[in-house]
Specification:
Elements (H helix, E strand, L loop, with lengths): L4 H4 L9 E7 L2 E6 L4 E8 L2 E7 L24 E4 L3 E5 L3 E6 L5 E5 L4 E13 L6 E8 L5 E4 L13 E4 L16 E2 L2 E6 L2 E7 L5 E5 L6 E6 L4 E7 L3 H12 L13 E2 L7 H14 L5 E4 L20 H10 L3 E6 L3 E2 L5 H9 L13 E3 L2 E4 L6 H9 L2 H7 L3 E4 L19 E2 L6 E2 H24 L6 E3 L2 E2 L7 E3 L7 H15 L6 E2 L1 E2 L8 H11 L6 E2 L15 H16 L1 H14 L4 E3 H4 L13 E3 L3 E3 L9 E6 L3 E4 L5 E3 L2 E6 L7 E4 L3 E4 L13 E7 L3 E9 L13 E10 L2 E9 L8 E7 L5 E6 L2 E3 L11 E5 L4 E6 L1
Parallel strand pairs: 13-29, 19-20, 19-33, 20-21, 21-25, 25-28, 28-30, 30-31, 32-33, 43-47
Antiparallel strand pairs: 1-2, 2-3, 3-4, 4-18, 5-6, 6-7, 7-8, 8-9, 9-10, 10-17, 11-14, 12-16, 14-15, 15-18, 16-17, 22-24, 23-24, 26-27, 34-35, 35-36, 36-41, 37-40, 38-39, 38-41, 42-43, 44-45, 45-46, 46-51, 47-50, 48-49, 48-51
Helix pairs in contact: 6-8, 10-11
Pfam family, one: Gal_mutarotas_2
Keywords: Glycosidase, Hydrolase
Family: Belongs to the glycosyl hydrolase 31 family.
Amino acid sequence: MITNTSLEYKGDLYPSKIVSYEHEGDSISFNTDNKVILKVTILRDSLIRFRFTTKGYFSNDFSYAIDKTQLHGYNFLELTEEETYFEIRTSKVKCKIQKADLRLAIYDLNDFLILEDELGFHWEESYEYGGNIVKMSKFSKDGECYYGLGDKATQMNLKGKRVENFATDQYAYQKDQEPLYKVVPFYIGLHNKQSYGIFFDNTFRTFFDFCQERRNITSFWAEGGEMNYYFIYGPQMQDVVTTYTDLTGKPELPPLWVLGYHQCKWSYYPESKVKEITSKFRELKIPCDAIYLDIDYMDGFRCFTWNKNYFPDPKKMVAELAEDGFKTVVIIDPGIKIDKDYWVYQEALEKDYFCKRADGPYMKGKVWPGECNFPDYTNPAVREWWAGLFKELIADIGVKGVWNDMNEPAVMEVPNKTFPMDVRHLYDGNPCSHRKAHNIYGTQMARATYHGVKRFVYPKRPFVITRSAYSGAQRYTSSWTGDNVATWEHLWIANIQVQRMSISGMGFTGSDIGGFAEQPSGELYARWIQLGVFHPFCRTHSSGDHGNQEPWSFDEEVINITRKFVSLRYQLLPYLYTMFWQYIEEGVPMLKPLVYYDQDDTQTHYRNDEFVFGNQILVCPILEPNAVGRRMYIPRGEWYNYWTNELFVGGREIWIDTKFDEIPVFIKAGAIIPKYPVQQYVGELEFDELTLDVYYKHGKEKSQVYEDAQDGYDYKKGRYSFLSLRTIGKDKELIIQLHKEGKYDTPYSKYKINLIGLPFKVTEIEIDNEKVEFDKISFESNNFLIVDKEFNELHIVGE
């Protein structure tokens, strides 16, 4: 027995003094006399990677999170040595690294201190598993706020919170419960009107403490792996989020139908029930584009099979649903039933594709089919095989999208609800245990699913949705916030979660509208629909254990509210599609919390409820029962009440009256909002007008409209239409300027321009410097005009 306590438990260890350094290209390595190496890599002038090892050498550099297609480059890099520290300078920041202990501090070029190590990097040897528990602590500045970290059911501002990142099947989770389904180890710090970001790219179980344990200290640590983090300098939060999103990647553009309304339940079966649901949507004129089939469509819950008692001819059913505008989306889980007569199991067994325990046998766990084995999606050969399994579902039967669930991975009837930690994974040639692979298992499943759906749905675009995800998953999949509950508290949580996911790189996210567990009242369902139509992913889903949750499950008033708001979403599809285009092109989040929208206004730093949908629509949900209004914060600038067209000056909190069939929605002054006519599904109607709602502003404002063929890949060949619109408002004049890019010719020929808030009576209209008669453009009572889409400048003059 070893009784020497210094050997039994060494406690925290720290780097010692720097004894040498090497500068090669964009990287500088500092070596200490106790074999710690800090490698600093300048990816951009505002993006710096800090990577530590305690072994005297680095292991293979591999990450599932980083988008390897992104090109990085800096403009300026200079290393200087001072008496007590080294200084690395770029064109945006400078970093001082102490010679005595590798502690570092980062400043802007005006010597303003952005971020500073407290203890800095330290570690503890893990005697149970080997390797290190790696730790980092930094000082928190007075008034510093913290945001991000993805799927967290807590306040937007994380100051005073401790959170845990370990993908977990958390059925009916509660406010502040940790951990949840997704792992996004990226946060944004804000103090003194300066924003920065930290991305801790470590797939082990990680923790972040934002001044909870110690008042002025923020820290993060992992149960294994490397201390490997990226520092992102703003100074605007917009810059931080865009850089992080570029670093971890962006999705491709979804087909437009995916941005419509979706209906789901556990489960719709048999076929007659599915058609009853879809027919009712058409009968009630509530738009809907997708119907989902949960696990009961399968034969004994076996993936890639059909229960022929419920669905005797799935290809015929899917085709008939498509004729009525419905796209079919099916669920696929990772657990493969142990059954020697089941072809998927046979193939995986023959190819040795299942995860194994440390001593050799296959990992076995209970999920819906019973005893299952689980594919190792960290093996490229397994991913390729898995992608090929979708041929029948997608190419032959005609399914349009796939929903990955239970992929945390979730295992039933075991204490930790997942794989044992000794399970082995290939990890793309970097073999490891489940401790390292757990948090990325769901992402690699979604990645394999994405490649399969994309292969067989081509030449159309794929749609995949996942419950579990790690940073970078947005390159392959959308997501939702998991098994929520039909409570008012969960409506509040859903609002915050989707905002937080949006600024954490995973913008294509929504919640189960109405709550998955338990049963909402009609009022709660209506209020959730009113919020959900302003989320990038919009789907009602429920467990079905507590009753029905289709819109007609409630009274006529709720049906009408659902129709009204889902129809509004379909009108706003060109606006939403443009939001998505900006997200994939520029990394701009589709939902913007108020602190993101205006970080210099300290009143935004603790706001949870209000958010900006796209760039120009302000939304504030009603989160309490029996509400006849609410207090809300209007950000700085001028905003029109969408329902009344009343103009408000922002930068203040106000009371807004609301009806049951409304929530506070405001439009930024100067905005041009594009609208389609209401369709029951995307592509139902051919129309000859695009409506443009033009909100007058004294001054200038820019708007954009992106359109293409709504599916397929021609947009990547330049066949898209991108309108840059500009309004210039004067006392007696409104000028609308239009510039078009792209080779796509939109099917409509005219714009219907709705004029809102004009402070003058129109006396004259010029199009491209030519005066036009009112009757030729259907100008009516100062409200609207209809013009040919081929114009460059429109002058509306008044008195």
